[in-house]
C-alpha cells in the first residue's frame, strides 16, 4: 500500500468573509482579513479563523510506494482551490493509500471537507464507510478514512498523544529532537503575509518540508511499532536523502544541510 503524508497551507477566505459580513467592495483584502481576525480575537482571544473560512492554497504530499519516494505539491497559482482539493481526493481514489498527517484530523481534513463542498468536489472513496461500489467497500466499514480510531488515515500527532490535546507535541520540536531538520524557511503564521507578497513558491516549499519532516517522524513511529528494524529505518532515511538530493531546489539543499549524516 502506498503511503501519502499530506499537509495543507491556507489563507483567509477573503471572498467568503466579505460575503458573510456584507463588507463593502472598497475594503482591501488585507482590511477584510483584519476585520475577521479582530472578530475572532474578541470571540475567542485568538485570531485563528474557523475552519470553513480557511482557503486552501497548497496541498503538499510525500509519497512512498514500492518503487520510490517523491514529494509533490498541488498549489496556486497554477491551480485553483477547487482543483487542488479535487486532485488530492483523486489521488485517494486512485491509490487507496495509507494517509498520514500531523493534526490532519483536527485541521487539514475538516478544512478540505468544508472547502471541497464549496467547490463541488467528489471524493467517494475517501467517504466510503462500507456502502460504496468498490470490491473492498465492506472492509471500509471497519477501517476507513473517516473514523478517528481507524488506521487508513493516521493522524500521528493525535495518536502519539493518545488523543489527549494536553499531550500534543509540536512537529518542529519533535523532528529536531529526533535529529531531523524541522521547519525550514518560514512557519504557518507567515503564510498570509507571504501570499500577499506574491511568494507562493515559498509557501509551497515550506509545506513540502513539513510533509517530509512528518514522514521522517512517521518512520520513527514505524520503528517503534515493529514495522521497521534499525537497519530498515536507516535504509528508509537514506531513500529520502537520495530522493531530495536529486531535486535541484534551494529548499531541499537547505533541508539536507540541516540534516547531516551521522
UniProtKB/TrEMBL annotation:
Domain named Predicted 3'-5' exonuclease PolB-like: which ranges? 46-259
Q: Name one Pfam family in it.
A: DNA_pol_B_exo2
Key words of the record: Exonuclease, Hydrolase, Nuclease
What one GO molecular function would you report for this record? exonuclease activity
Give the Gene3D superfamilies listed for this entry.
Answer: Ribonuclease H-like superfamily/Ribonuclease H
Q: Which protein are we looking at?
A: 3'-5' exonuclease
Q: Which organism is it from?
A: Thauera phenolivorans
Query: Species lineage, top-down?
Result: Bacteria, Pseudomonadati, Pseudomonadota, Betaproteobacteria, Rhodocyclales
